[in-house]
Protein 1
Amino acid sequence: SAVISQKPSRDICQRGTSLTIQCQVDSQVTMMFWYRQQPGQSLTLIATANQGSEATYESGFVIDKFPISRPNLTFSTLTVSNMSPEDSSIYLCSVGSGAVPAQYFGPGTRLLVL
Amino acid sequence: GENVEQHPSTLSVQEGDSAVIKCTYSDSASNYFPWYKQELGKGPQLIIDIRSNVGEKKDQRIAVTLNKTAKHFSLHITETQPEDSAVYFCAAIGSGGGADGLTFGKGTHLIIQP
């Protein structure tokens, strides 16, 4: 199994600012993903964080708004840039394998933008 | 792309009774169907999954059934307990494969009445 931690666990931010969320895994993993879960809603994949190359973004998400880093096989960051109230969500890091892509989720980062 | 419908959105059952949550999917090529449990303030937890080459899978009080012809799959929880109260999400991987092909249902809020 994999244990995932995220920092911060929650934050309240002013519009126009940026927040960087960290995801740390206790073992090396091939596949790492970032999801968004808006209040009371389901999960939407933002991007796949690729080690050593640029992240792969899903439709509706762009690198300028959600830059992602993945410097090694245990760590990734997601930045939410130039935030607006519509960015208020839970942001989740997930890891898995080819057989089970979203096998483990982190506890999430609860973001409120005022 | 894949479309996953989940019903009901809220389910209330008496402790000790059974609960059934149903999902339908649109992509006949889908071959992997996980179920997640999300407790308040936590990230989703994979609780059971099934692949398209089997019709049923059990793990203690939890079972999942798959009907490929009808393109639906269900989560069955028997002898429900208070700790089963949570939001449950189904998901399906479409023909694209990988996490970018993983589509989630909108979730079912399961309430276990004492």
Note: The interface with chain B takes residues 4, 31, 33, 41-45, 48, 56, 58, 92, 94, 96, 98, 100-108 of chain A (CB under 8 Å).
Protein 2
Amino acid sequence: KQEVTQIPAALSVPEGENLVLNCSFTDSAIYNLQWFRQDPGKGLTSLLLIQSSQREQTSGRLNASLDKSSGRSTLYIAASQPGDSATYLCAVNWGTNAGKSTFGDGTTLTVKP
Amino acid sequence: DAGVTQSPTHLIKTRGQQVTLRCSPKSGHDTVSWYQQALGQGPQFIFQYYEEEERQRGNFPDRFSGHQFPNYSSELNVNALLLGDSALYLCASSFDFDRSGNTIYFGEGSWLTVV
């Protein structure tokens, strides 16, 4: 069964700290992997998309890496800010169908001033 | 450029009733997918519409049905509502297979409470 796991479920860090969020997936034959941010009671905002042929993607203070052989992706956030507080979700596509993704349950990040 | 829009944003229904949720995809997108997100969990794929047909379906009962219109907008219908149907319903739009990096875009969701 194709599953996505995110550990820990919650993480609290002081402002300014660099941090890593983890995403694990079964079945290494992925098509792509996407990281999302979700604020309380809101929809999902796309952060980064990594194709299966790529090792990493960067956007501002965010860097996502992909290691298919180990079934893992990480989202690195540099110099965290209170505005980064949100739930971060990892979604994996195992086929070319862009809309059918399997999500983890997310990691809720709190950045304390 | 309008993003994905959903309506209504919040609604309360009674067990056994029926509900219809609506979604307009991002401009230019032709594929609409629906997800259910229970509190504290990740979204779960319900089904996807392309060219006005249901193309793929997740593990949801037939009480969940949908429709796509010629302008690519979509509706999600849920019949015989159960308390367990209370969730955030998310609409996602994208291009058809293997275009534009396959990024998917989500709306703000419709919060459904069944009492």
Note: Chain A touches chain B through 28 residues (CB under 8 Å).
Protein 3
Amino acid sequence: DTEVTQTPKHLVMGMTNKKSLKCEQHMGHRAMYWYKQKAKKPPELMFVYSYEKLSINESVPSRFSPECPNSSLLNLHLHALQPEDSALYLCASSQDDLVRGLSYEQYFGPGTRLTVT
Amino acid sequence: AQSVTQLDSQVPVFEEAPVELRCNYSSSVSVYLFWYVQYPNQGLQLLLKYLSGSTLVKGINGFEAEFNKSQTSFHLRKPSVHISDTAEYFCAVSKVRGWAGAQKLVFGQGTRLTINP
């Protein structure tokens, strides 16, 4: 099973709202990722968690706050977003081999389509 | 740093014709190579990957790609396309690392494949 699930599928929020995006995988992967994708563009990396620790933050504004409660779950908390934050938010996971220092292909979820009004 | 160039932003092809989507990369270190497909309003699906070994890689849906180290290319091919292959295709690379920690994928800008009846 190579499934990554994301909820909700669609989200409309105002600029003063607080909401969260959720991502889950049960493949035993220890690396999880958040990407933002605008229309007709490739995904842009936002955050990476490796073994539940934040490994990479690509200078994302603080209105986006990631959280990794356990090895299967990844959340993205949203607060005071701007209309330009409207995009498809993708979660991904990959196997991360600490012993051999290797990381493998990423598996993506279906995404959450976010609209900020 | 790595970079990926997808030479064609759009490729129109007639059904049952062969197709090649071109991908060139730049890197000073060894890389892993991937092709992902994105159907409308969906996440990214892994088509195929090159990690090591044989330079001809077969993937899902009848696609294959050949890794050419001297030309730093990883072109995607299919001998006979179907209407259902209409999608956005992304080439991506990541570094082969000797240490643990999650990988960063570098994407090309994407190629829109349109299959005409």
Note: The longest strand of chain A covers residues 87-97.
Protein 4
Amino acid sequence: GQQVMQIPQYQHVQEGEDFTTYCNSSTTLSNIQWYKQRPGGHPVFLIQLVKSGEVKKQKRLTFQFGEAKKNSSLHITATQTTDVGTYFCAGPGGSQGNLIFGKGTKLSVKP
Amino acid sequence: ETGVTQSPTHLIKTRGQQVTLRCSSQSGHNTVSWYQQALGQGPQFIFQYYREEENGRGNFPPRFSGLQFPNYSSELNVNALELDDSALYLCASSFTENTEAFFGQGTRLTVV
């Protein structure tokens, strides 16, 4: 079945360092979504990418959708302690109407 | 906050019991999805309801069932609870099946 994989599983950075998480799908995606889940919280929508090669920025966060629409990345510049949490990518699961989530990348930031 | 509310927030049940979890969708959303999130994992799709009809189902056994009501609120019912059902259960509402999902705060279910 369709799979969405994320690497790395964990990332520990010093405050001010950059961070990148990568997402790969076993199938071509019509769109990809990114969510952030703070410790003890629930997933919160960050962004949706739709077009091949699309790049979107939200302040220090840069999101990319691959040309083949099978991979995506999230890059955070100059991390802050407020960036701590788990970042998930998710793609449409097809006719079931669901989202298929990756296992997430857990980011910790040392002050 | 998203406007999606779930109840209860925490629940402890005994193996073999039944549980009902509730979700109130964000205003204007007619699609609700339920997800199970085990510790350290991403959310796993259980099923989705659109206008009171089941619109899709993930790889969960029939003892996981649901309802959506005319006001688009929803219930998740789990019968014959097993220890492995211990997880965070998330409800998410959206305008359509593939637009951004607004998650509730979840119900933490512990089966002992």
Note: The two ends of chain B are 32 Å apart (CA to CA).
